[in-house]
Amino acid sequence: MAYVIAEACIGVKDKSCVSVCPVDCIHEGNVSEDGKEYDMLFINPDECIDCGLCEPECPVSAIYADSDVPKQWESYIQLNANFFKK
Hints:
The chain has helices spanning 16-20, 75-83, and strands at residues 3-5, 26-33, 36-43, 63-65. It is built from two helices and four strands. A hairpin with a 2-residue loop joins strand 2 (26-33) and strand 3.
């Protein structure tokens, strides 16, 4: 399991989650996919240790365990993974 950042982060990028991540797996970026621009933070699923420290720090509630991502934002699971495949 890994954590995922979803739509609520777009354009916000508060970064309070970054400061609490013990493995520095949260990165800022901008990616174009499916004709949309995603300017947000991304969690590297290969580096995330599932500690959950980032989730309560997000002021816009954009962070979810990959198994708990709301249905309308499930595409963000792959979007986060694709960001790190570049």
